[in-house]
Amino acid sequence: MERQPVxxxxxxxxxxxxxxxxxxxxxxxxxxxxYYNVPSxxxxxxxxxxxxxxxxxxxxxxxxxxxxx
Length: 69
Known about the structure:
The protein has one domain (4-68). It is 25% helix and 32% strand. It has helices at residues 40-48, 52-59; strands at 4-5, 11-17, 22-27, 32-35, 66-68. Helix 1 packs antiparallel against helix 2.
């Protein structure tokens, strides 16, 4: 999955696979996580957010099933 770089103190890059509704997030630590069953509107809102980290923590983290990639 291709990820796009983001300007964030916690996130490095974000990618989304619309066919599988999978969001992939790379953190500054180097860890990459995949979040499943994420609607496309969540990805769009995350990418449009003034703070990617704040949006991620409030709307995605701990809300969707995830695994470390």
